[in-house]
Write a structure and sequence with these properties.
About 45% of the residues lie in helices and about 10% in strands. Helix 3 links the parallel strand 2 and strand 3.
Amino acid sequence: MVSQLPLALQLREGNDLSNFVAGENGALFQGIRETVVGADRQAFIWGPDGQGKSHLLEGAVRLAQQHGLSACLLPAEELLPLSPEVLESMEQFDLLALDDCQHFAGDPRWEEALFHLYNRLMARGGRLLVTANASPTAMGLMLPDLATRLAAGPVYRLQPLDDAAMETLLVERARARGLRLEPEVAHFIVLRSERSPAGLVALLNRLDQLALAQQRSVTIPFVKDALGW
């Protein structure tokens, strides 16, 4: 029986590998699949906040579950208020997806707990996906052996999406929620908004709610009125 964490780690609805816009991250995207259901046992993904790292991990957990594997998402920021002992027995999962690992850097207790979890997981034949905002050697870990282990598999840098890819992301996310968004409207939004997938999705959520409340279509004039542009 796989242990249960004493907190609710819910996967957000809609975050799947099938709707992740990869842009120039094709090798990274394939590497995640290889780690979940292929020959690789681990991978490390790093890049700025808001670029889709959590989306990738949630999609990886869903992919593992679709293949009959036990998988668990571990958001470091949600674990920190707990005791590092929460990681004990987590190696029972076939796949662990550790998000925002940089939050553990500089805390000896958490670093040691993660180091031992890594060793137990690999000894058992499990798989590990880790994300952070910096590479294993640059995120400030105090335990050199932990940095070495996290870098033992493929290390990928998540490349930012270009404008065309961000426009595709907006249109596809709008379509998934039943919202019609013309390409020229997506182009208008991308040129004037925060340059991150997370920021764009949050903006789309806001526009969707306002359009529904006002019973209006999401056009350029509506976007201008709604956002004060």
